[in-house]
Amino acid sequence: MEIGSNIKAEFSFFDKKIEVKYSEFYKVFAHINNNSFAYTIFDLKNEEFLALESFIFNDEKDLAKIISEFPVFNWDLNSISINYFNKNCTIIPNALYEEKYKKKYFEINNNIDSNEKILTNKLSHLNAVIIYTIPEIQLLEINKLKTFKIKHSASIFIDNIMKQSKNSNKSELFADLTTNNFDVAFIKKSKLIFYNNFKFNTVDDFLYYILNCYNTLELNSNEITLRLSGEFNKDITLGNLKKYIKNVIIENKPKSYSYSHLFNNVPNHYFHKLYNQYKCE
After folding, report:
1. Distance CA 194, CA 118 (A)
2. How far is residue 277's CA from residue 124's CA, in Å, rounded to a whole number?
3. Mind listing the pLDDT tens digit of every residue in the chain (281 residues)?
4. Most exposed among 11, 131, 154, 165, judged by the fewest C-beta atoms under 10 Å?
5. What's the chain's Rg over C-alpha atoms?
6. How far is CA 44 from CA 5, 77, 163, in A?
7. Is 222 exposed, middle or buried (0-12, 13-18, 19+ CB in 10 A)?
8. Eight-state DSSP code of residue 167
9. Spatial distance between the Cα atoms of 66 and 85, rounded to a whole number of angstroms
10. Do the Cβ atoms of 135 and 115 come closer than 8 Å?
11. End-to-end Cα, the chain, rounded Å
12. CA distance 83 to 87
């Protein structure tokens, strides 16, 4: 399925159980970055994921075409939760954060374009605030949606792995990939030691950044496990990583919820940034 010549659908399916009259019991969880968009429909009553669509596009303006094409975004939904990836972001501890200085905090390590808007959200498992920007043209389209919340993708990623590592004595590196970018973090004995995100074009690029994290953090690749999730070719990626890292674990989708049988066509390590939004709200 394609919407226009510059937009390509990767997955597109809806369970027959979905009915507009039950829309007040549906949550939509979405992910947006500079060239991809994905969303899923979650049934609150049965705690079940019922639908999934994901798209690759070339132009920020294509987001408007995607949102306007599907009536689900105009339903009277329970809510719409969006996690948004922008490489430029800054994390500030709550103890140091003051709202009036958010622009100054952000500009310590990043530049703000004239067409961007600064947004913030709290990291509930880290006692910190993340500051990031979003192009105004995309924010304008998002603002047309009903009852939506927006967070930086690092919020979902960090809160999820912090919750997953709670009371653990392990030291592990986590990475979650999506189209041409990924989040990476190192947790040692339940504490976040390092977070960053990178853009990449090839598997070799990804491998370079991961190995650089091991080197920079002085981690032993024979001892420190790498836990991977996201949208990537499992065989190719795992084959390359295993040459240098002894323990690589590919995450499966959360077992806390039910999934329509249609999700059997989606690799288990895909779309954690969607599935984990509910427990990170």
Report:
1. 23
2. 13
3. 445 557 788 899 999 999 999 999 999 999 988 788 999 999 999 999 999 999 888 776 777 777 777 789 889 999 999 999 988 999 999 999 999 999 999 999 899 988 899 999 999 888 899 999 998 888 888 888 877 899 999 999 999 999 999 889 999 999 999 888 999 999 999 999 999 999 999 999 999 999 999 999 999 999 999 999 999 999 999 999 999 999 999 999 999 999 999 999 999 999 999 999 987 77
4. 11
5. 19
6. 35, 11, 22
7. exposed
8. T
9. 17
10. yes
11. 31
12. 13
What's the predicted TM-score (pTM) here? Answer: 0.91
- Token reading at 45: 């009553």
Residue 114: what residue type?
Answer: S
Q: Residue 78 corresponds to which amino acid?
A: N
Task: State the Cα torsion 109-112-117-119 to the nearest 10°.
Answer: 0
> CA angle, corner 247, sides to 274 and 36, nearest 5?
25
